[in-house]
Design goal:
The chain is α/β, with parallel strands linked by helices. It has 9 helices and 15 strands. Helix 1 links the parallel strand 1 and strand 2.
């Protein structure tokens, strides 16, 4: 039986990514789309052949044929909408961040445990083909590893994402992707973080963070350095991950090229375009809902951890002090 799906939020991301991928994936049946803009909801329902469009979230929550709710709304609504869906016994795919605050993250974690449903967070990078290959290559390491990760993004023209209350700023909005990815690759828990940064390109939003350098330590001794912001040229490839494992090195360049050194096999793979794992994310989620999980799905614990890392990075920037990361206290 196909997974009855409702997409909440009909903005550009949903229409460009999730809705086309749901339409292409035979595991899903798009039942509904919802947006506070009723006209947009109806237009999107027609465009993607949903059974109905609505501006009332209760219509989706009350629909017994909806098994999965996909949340693609502004960040400050993620936790609230996810909680309502979980309490209605729906599975959830919520775009990052899962929550903007630790209290909201904790509430969601506990609600998911009570309801016994799946809540997955849209950390698509861990499903990217080249990152999955990198995960295989580092999984048998004998000692700590070091990851250098860099994102040079465009200067965002949608200031809501940099608003600390609505979007959370760049660290909560997007660095959570990298906290999750690096933790997935390392396979251990982060224990402390230091960061410096601030509003380097948006002086009109002085309490945001648009650029930062962050350093994490993991409980196995691994170290991650993340440079994330919009300083630099947008013409340069956006993302690059360098991994150092013993006498081996792996580089993933913009999710399009994987190169390795020091391995017995030759590692040099190029893709025609950058592949960031959006389609694979839906495959993993469908498998989990249908009872055949792979163990790779980003769940509510991963979402809580990423929010915790982001909150502590912001605290480190503001205080100038290293911050402990204590995930068990949040669960």
């Amino acid at each position: 039986m196909k997974i009855g799906t409702a997409v909440i939020g009909c903005g550009s991301f949903a229409r460009a990514i999730h809705l086309p991928n749901i339409r292409r994936n035979n595991a899903y049946a798009l039942r509904a789309v919802m947006d506070t803009n009723a006209e947009l909801a109806q237009h999107t329902a027609t465009e993607f052949n949903a059974l109905y469009g609505t501006s009332n979230y209760a219509d989706v929550l009350d629909d017994s044929e909806v098994t999965l709710v996909v949340i693609c709304t502004p960040h400050d609504s993620h936790a609230r909408l996810s909680l309502q869906a979980v309490e209605a016994r729906k599975h959830v795919l919520v775009e990052k961040p899962m929550a903007l605050t630790l209290s909201d993250a904790q509430t969601l974690v506990r609600a998911v445990k009570r309801a016994g449903v799946i809540l997955s967070v849209g950390f698509n990078r861990r499903y990217a083909p080249l990152m999955r290959k990198a995960k295989e290559l580092v999984s048998e390491r004998k000692g700590p590893m070091i990851i250098n990760y860099r994102i040079v993004d465009e200067i965002w023209q949608h200031p809501w994402a940099l608003d600390p209350k609505v979007g959370g700023g760049r660290i909560l909005s997007e660095s959570v992707h990298i906290f999750d990815l690096c933790t997935y690759l390392i396979g251990c828990e982060p224990v402390r973080i230091y960061a410096d940064g601030g509003a380097l390109t948006h002086p009109d939003i002085p309490d945001t963070q648009d650029n930062a350098v962050m350093l994490l330590r993991y409980d196995d001794g691994s170290i991650v350095s993340i440079t994330h912001g919009d300083l630099g040229s947008a013409a340069y490839p956006k993302e690059r991950a360098e991994m150092f494992i013993g006498r081996k090195t792996l580089v993933v360049d913009n999710y399009q090229h994987l190169e390795g050194a020091g391995f017995e096999e030759q590692i040099d793979t190029s893709l025609d375009t950058a592949e960031k794992g959006f389609a694979e994310e839906l495959e993993e989620l469908a498998n989990a809902i249908n009872g055949t999980p792979s163990g790779h799905l980003a769940n509510h614990i991963d979402g809580a951890r990423a929010t915790l890392c982001a909150v502590k990075a912001i605290e480190a920037i503001r205080s100038g002090c290293v911050q402990a990361i204590d995930l068990p206290s949040l669960l």
